[in-house]
Amino acid sequence: MAGDRGQLSNDVNACVDEVIRRVGKEITLGLPLGLGKPVRFVNALYQRAKDDPEIRLHIVTALSLLAPKGGSSLEKRFMGPFVERLYGRIPELAYARDVSANRLPKNVQVSEFFFKAGSYLNNRSQQRHYVCTNYTHAVRDLMAVGVNVVAQMVAPGEAHGQPGQVSLSCNPDLTLDLIPLLREREAAGTPVALVAEMNQNLPWFGHHAAIEADRFDVLLDQPSSDYPLFSAPQMSVSPEDHMIGFYASALLKDGGTLQVGIGSLGAALVHSAILRHSHNEAWRKVFDHLNVDQNFPVVTEDGGTGPFEQGLYGCSEMMVDGFLYLMQEGILSREVYDHAGLQALINRGDISGEVSLSTLDVLRREKLIDSPLRARDVHWLVRHGIFREAVEFKGGRLRVGDQSVEGDLDNPEARRAIETLILGEKLSGGITMHGGFYVGPEQFYQYLRGLTDEQRAKICMTSVNFINHLYDHRFGDQKLKVAQRVHGRFINSAMMYTLNGAGVSDGLDDGRVVSGVGGQYNFVAMAHELPGARSILSLRSTRSSHGKVLSNIVFNYGHCTIPRHLRDIVITEYGIADLRGQSDEQVFLRLIRIADSRFQQELLKKAQKAGKVDPAFKLPDDWCNNTPQAIRRAVAAAGDASLFPPFPFGRDFTDEELTLGKALKGLKAATATRRGKLSTLLQALRARDDEGRYGALLERMGLSNPSGLRDKLDQRLVVHGLQQLETPPDTGNSKT
């Protein structure tokens, strides 16, 4: 019942009791994707289910975050102190750890629609219970499985001058649409429970994300047990990643719209966009070195090379930390407004952000306001900052304090008075970032908590169904979305890409799920619907597997995420393949052109054998320089090696950990095969650190004084790995 809502408690077990009282012991629990899971409540409910087999608990969610543990003994030694430093004060999701260890009780099931990439490839239970759905269909599917409890971490409003409100902050994405549907289900007679867990560490966001606290039934508020937010460490950006990001940055249209995903490829794009804007001369040196405009004319048609004078608008299901860096650099600065007619006038340049009498004349010409002005006109003009906030409409006239002005725009005297007393200075209410959820490094959360009120007002965390497609939504209809999302660039990553134009992003050909579709299909489809928009799928041209280098551009594959009829733009570190509207032969050739040169000839032969490419076609010489060495030369073209750093936005690893990480990565690659493992072990047995050069690094690994055989072998392996970092490969007899 509505009167029972908004119950405040500082006892998590009392909250669990109340949920069971409301809905019984058949619980289908919907939890937010990623960061917004209320760990205290979820752990208490899960423990209750473990203690009481009569409870049937089905958890439906996505991206259950866990601190990494490491597999081998060396990985565990490396990760232990790092994990303690980053996650030591954060309670662990108990059900997620049990899922990972395959020890869920029989009365508990966990279904997810998105995994952390690769985390459950070998977990048969999670593979069986995975739910394949587009992000925009997640609410529908949650309702279909009978969700009757929703629980979420929220930010309390008191500290932000909003008593009685909470902010959905990091996860309004699904909750905003779930709440009214659950209340409808409740009104029809099905018991439900909505639970909010307060956490003062969660950044506050207003607009759509701020809702009345009593829209929840139960609110857990225990400040003494508030915990830090789960962070995703900054990932290193390789030279190959930087080149992919560089090419993508040349496809951004000034005055356009940007969506980008998480990970090193997204970070690389943001970094190159900042270079283009703030260090344009250095950016142009790389651009010219690569002859980007000549080799890939699409950048001239759909991209740009200059600073972002008009700025970009962010519209992305995930607000990655890169958007904040773009905001700090003045790039994420194009404001959009929640009125399609007003937005269209801004897009055409008929009005600007600066308010004047001509603004009123244009609005009148377009029939957005009348003359004489009416009450609804004045209200609308005040809301958008065209009139000052203090302006009222009384007795048919405009009033500011004790002064009264006629609202006739044809009256010269009234116009002068309006200009002097009534007009505002700038349009207000503009948004530069619409996001559905966020998760990122701790530095990102600190920045978000430190935003000024003005900066925070430019960010609107909202429903993913508003962001991810063009259908009408209560926060904006299709006409508004089209007006806001001009020159959309929707940039996502893929694992593989087939020569006929299909993207492989979420699964393997044996049916196993690597991650999930998420919103990728939504954005690709939207790019084909929006005028002037482009879908961009980025991927590294190769990967290493079991000691072998394999091409990620493949002839065919037994699974796809993005079908070939939605092919658009594909980027590797070797360039841009513009596939939209092209014949199959051109699609095959353009993808071969951006493949690693070690695989181009084989791909061409398969394409010719299939009859997709003219048998007489020969690879042009300028296509055949797609090598790692060429990438290094391109990165160096700007003349400053520091322009493309491995951690452009800071890092969570110490210097020692970076060195050890490289050594362990080298060891892992060297032992990928049986022969390599044997060779590495034999070399490691001879490795010594007699001079004590690696003392601090061995101490960091807990191997300064190894006691047992395993520890002594681990010490030798670490020393060998560190020595390999310092010993360049012997190329004296090389003929290449």
UniProtKB/TrEMBL annotation:
Please cite one Gene Ontology biological process associated with this protein. acetate metabolic process
Q: One Pfam match, by short name?
A: AcetylCoA_hyd_C
Q: Which residues form the Acetyl-CoA hydrolase/transferase C-terminal domain?
A: 440-607
Q: Which GO terms describe its molecular function?
A: acetate CoA-transferase activity; hydrolase activity
Source superkingdom: Bacteria
Q: Which UniProt keywords apply?
A: Hydrolase
- Which Gene3D superfamilies does the record match to this protein? Acetyl-CoA hydrolase/transferase C-terminal domain (3.40.1080.20), Glutaconate Coenzyme A-transferase (3.40.1080.10)
Q: Per its UniProt record, what PANTHER family does this chain match?
A: ACETYL-COA HYDROLASE, ACETYL-COA HYDROLASE-RELATED
Kindly provide the name given to this protein in its UniProt entry. Answer: Acetyl-CoA hydrolase
| Annotated source species | Marinobacter maroccanus
